[in-house]
Amino acid sequence: MQFIDYNFKHVFMCQNKRLWILYTQMRILYSSNNERVLINKGSFSEVLRFQKPIQKSDYNLLCKNTNNIAMYTNQCVLYSIFNQNQTLLGILEISISVNDYFSFDEEYYGVILAKL
Question: Which residues, at least 6 apart from 111, have a Cβ–Cβ distance to it below 8 Å?
Answer without folding.
Answer: none
